[in-house]
Amino acid sequence: MLEKREAHLQKKMADELKKAKEFTRQKNKRAALQCLKRRKMYEAQADTLANQQLRLYDQKLLLEGAKATAETVGAMKSTAAALKVMQKETKVEDIDKTMDEINEQTENMRQIQEALGQPMGAAAEIDEDELDLELEELEAEDLDEMLMEPAAEQGEPALELPSVPQRTEAQTEDEELEALQAEMAL
Questions:
Q1: Where are the domains of the chain?
Q2: Residue range 108-145, pLDDT digits in tens
Q3: Following CA atoms 90, 94, 100, 102 in sequence, which dihedral angle do they give, to the nearest 10 degrees?
Q4: Of 13, 72, 113, 119, whose CB has the highest number of CB atoms within 10 Å?
């Protein structure tokens, strides 16, 4: 309704301005001033209507915000009530009992897995201590063989080292790059 009223006032303001221009062309200054005064009054009414519309819009936003807040608070209350019910149903003793059962089942599974991992048949008859002694004997024999080998002749290196390429002054950077690329391709 306010928007319709404002549109009507806008139309009247346009009409008064049109009339004022006609009276100005006719050199009727008094009538043109009267039209401009009425136009100003219509403008004041239009401003009042615009302010009222703004206040109503502000109130609408305030109501929408209040409704959203009320819904949020209601949801929070529902959540709090549901949590209370759940906490009443869940007791610390029940949790402790459940955790003990889980730990007991875990221990049972560990024992079962250990039992399944035990060697059977011929593998069960092997003595671990006997194997350790045999391993120590093998290691001692290997050490003796290494100590008894004849030393390498003097003047000849025991290991063959790769040769280091010699650089000549005539090599250019391009040749060095090509040589490097060829080495990397190997």
A1: 2-88
A2: 999 988 888 776 666 666 777 777 788 788 888 888 88
A3: -50
A4: 13
